[in-house]
Amino acid sequence: MITTETQEQPIEIQFSILKRGEPDSRGPFTEQDILAQLNAGEITSEDMVFYEGLGEWKPIGEVFEIQEQISHFVDDGQDKQKVAVAFREVSNVVGSEEDIFYIAVQAKAGLLGKTKQCVIVTDTHVFMLHEKRVGYELEAHLWKTVTNTLMRDEGRGLGTFSILLGGEKRVDVCHIPLKQVQRLFQLSQEIKQSID
């Protein structure tokens, strides 16, 4: 199920559909409504779909294929919409031979930031996704330039994940749920061992 988290309870994403050959869109629909219409043959995977945060109309098959691909990244309670954005942004810059292993999302923004950052681990890079006033910025670091990774328990179920670059620069992403920090650290250690 595609949902977005709020303080009280998850809110299900509402979709609009633009059927090929029709001038006006229809909706709102839930994910289950769309799947039911697909199964009944009322719409096809080539018809277009849109939801807030998607950016532009896309074929239904493409959107739900992406949603299926990212669903295994939210096992540790990540914000699914933030994961979808991170997945899209990283997929646009990595080659087909580079695999995305994990996406972690801050539980809350830092003192100076108003938006949550993401840490994305691939077999070649570690990315930090920063939301800007217009669009997103990816900070990319090749694993071979990362000299060490660190994790720190902040208390209250949150932690900080850090990478050291050449012993000169340290990049920290704080306020990540501890379970996600532990997974980032475990993956980073495995990747570093396979590279060294």
Topology:
Elements: E1 3-4, E2 11-12, E3 15-18, E4 26-29, H1 31-40, E5 48-50, E6 58-59, H2 60-70, H3 80-91, E7 100-105, E8 118-122, E9 125-131, E10 136-142, E11 146-155, E12 158-165, E13 169-177, H4 178-195
Antiparallel strand pairs: 1-2, 3-4, 3-5, 5-6, 7-8, 8-9, 9-10, 11-12, 12-13
Q: Give the H and E element order.
A: EEEEHEEHHEEEEEEEH
- Order of strands, main sheet, comes to 4-3-5-6
Alpha carbon gyration radius: 19 Å
Shape: elongated
What does this protein structure show overall?
With 196 residues, this protein is of the alpha+beta class. The chain folds into two domains: 3-71, Dna Ligase, domain 1, CATH 3.30.1490; 81-195, PH-domain like, CATH 2.30.29. It is 26% helix and 35% strand. A hairpin with a 6-residue loop joins strand 1 (3-4) and strand 2. The chain starts with a strand and ends with a helix. Mean pLDDT is 83; it is low at 1-10.
